[in-house]
């Protein structure tokens, strides 16, 4: 693996008087920025085991805030598995701004340099071995898909500025769901620029946009389009995508009396990858069902876990070798009416001073190639690294 650096982040944004590392930020391509500060940590007060219980606990917390705020809401992130690392907050102040980032970014901000090429967990050759093991288990019929991830930790020669990191991601990926969530005990920030909408609820209507099946973007337009068309025609990638879109549609059909699901996936381009995409929309049968309950019912989708869910979770615990924490979870907000928006926590990293830990995974199905899956994780990590002006190349041993 090699890392090259040498970029300058530039930009100009409206200033805000707050410690941004202790604020919650969420930018939606639909509604712009939501910035929350004065955060009351309620993570330990939300410990539900079912989506309905979770929604009930959240609504009780919000109801207790009625009268103290004009429009109380809950913000934060839920982890991939369990609730131990959940980060949920009731903000003292919420600012919405559809146009600009509510913070100041100095001009000509120079990033610190990485001290080494980083430490991958598992190591690259180990990741390929785990993919090969998963393919054996798929061939044996234990499950049909599993998403295997790895983590990469970089140390820099000085702390990486949180505000600069967030602003650089915002400028580089204008159509992404951008987020920043304070970690416990002021131990850094979980941040990222996700391409994937898990669940959006507005006035009794819900939207979800599962993504699965991908190829890297190409710098040359003709080659880029050829790769995208090949992805759309790929049997392996279409099977991987169908597992995700069909499950999302199945879950939402239990809540909706109208549900629109396209017959065929479409293509969507992010900063580094082409994805197969299915935009699903429905009308709630019961308008009191909140965005928290709906998102929790969908989570985790086969896009971040696998299929069937139980067997894929077991394989992840057995094969990955690290705790995902908030990676591959869900991040967003829910207001007192139940409206809200939640993105899948992808293209993300934990930033703590001079240490940056990135996360990325790849969906493994019959026909996957270990070296190609390793390369896919490296491509996904470039979302965060690119904002720092860094490049990454994965080499399997």
Characterize the structure shown.
- The structure is a single chain.
- Helix content is 28%, strand content 32%.
- The relative contact order is 0.21.
- The strands form 5 sheets. Strands 3, 4, 8, 10, 11, 12, 13, 21, 24 and 25 form a 10-stranded antiparallel beta sheet that branches.
- By secondary structure, it is an alpha+beta fold.
- Strand 24 (348-352) and strand 25 (355-364) form a beta hairpin.
- The protein has one domain: Anthranilate synthase (4-Layer Sandwich), CATH 3.60.120.
- The protein starts with a strand and ends with a strand.
User: What is the domain total for the residues?
Assistant: 1
Oligomeric state of the chains?
A: single chain
Low-confidence stretches: 6-17
CATH H-level homologous superfamily name? Anthranilate synthase
In the CATH scheme, the class would be Alpha Beta
- Output the radius of gyration: 20 Å
Overall outline: globular
| Secondary-structure-derived class | alpha+beta
CATH architecture: 4-Layer Sandwich
Q: What distance lies between the first and last C-alpha atoms, to the nearest angstrom? A: 10 Å
What is the count of β-strands?
A: 26
Protein name: isochorismate synthase
Family: Belongs to the isochorismate synthase family.
Keywords: Isomerase
Pfam family, one: Chorismate_bind
């Amino acid at each position: 693996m090699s890392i090259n650096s040498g970029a300058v982040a530039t930009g100009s944004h409206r200033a805000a008087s707050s410690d941004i590392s202790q604020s919650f930020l969420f930018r939606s391509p639909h509604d712009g920025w939501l910035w929350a500060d004065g955060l009351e940590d309620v993570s330990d007060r939300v410990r539900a085991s079912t989506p309905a219980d979770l929604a009930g606990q959240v609504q009780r917390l919000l109801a207790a805030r009625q009268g103290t705020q004009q429009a109380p809401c809950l913000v934060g992130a839920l982890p991939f598995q369990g609730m131990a690392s959940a980060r949920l907050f009731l903000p003292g102040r919420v600012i919405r701004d559809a146009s600009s980032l509510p913070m100041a970014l100095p001009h000509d901000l120079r990033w610190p340099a990485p001290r080494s090429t980083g430490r991958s967990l598992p190591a690259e050759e180990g990741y390929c071995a785990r993919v090969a093991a998963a393919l054996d288990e798929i061939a044996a019929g234990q499950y049909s898909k599993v998403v295997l991830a790895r983590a990469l930790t970089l140390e820099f020669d000085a702390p990486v500025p949180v505000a600069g990191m967030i602003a650089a991601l915002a400028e580089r990926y204008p159509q992404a769901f951008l987020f920043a969530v304070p970690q416990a005990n002021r131990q850094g920030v979980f941040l990222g620029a996700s391409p994937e909408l898990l669940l959006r609820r507005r006035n009794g209507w819900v939207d979800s946009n599962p993504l699965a099946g991908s190829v890297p973007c190409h710098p040359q337009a003709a080659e880029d389009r050829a790769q995208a068309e090949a992805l759309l025609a790929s049997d392996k990638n279409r099977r991987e995508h169908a597992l995700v879109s069909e499950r999302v549609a199945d879950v939402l059909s239990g809540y909706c009396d109208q549900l629109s699901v396209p017959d065929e996936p479409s293509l969507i381009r992010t900063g580094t990858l082409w994805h197969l995409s299915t935009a699903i929309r429905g009308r709630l049968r019961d308008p009191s069902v909140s965005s928290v309950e709906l998102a929790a019912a969908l989570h985790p989708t086969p896009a971040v876990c696998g299929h069937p869910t139980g067997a894929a979770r077991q394989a992840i615990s057995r094969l990955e070798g690290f705790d995902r924490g908030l990676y591959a979870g869900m991040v967003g907000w829910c207001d007192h009416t139940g409206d809200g928006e939640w993105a899948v926590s992808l293209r993300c990293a934990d930033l703590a001073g001079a240490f940056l830990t990135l996360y990325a995974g790849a969906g493994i199905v019959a026909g996957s190639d270990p070296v190609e899956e390793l390369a896919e994780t490296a491509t996904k990590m470039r979302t965060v690294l690119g904002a720092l002006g860094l490049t990454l190349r994965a080499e399997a041993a």
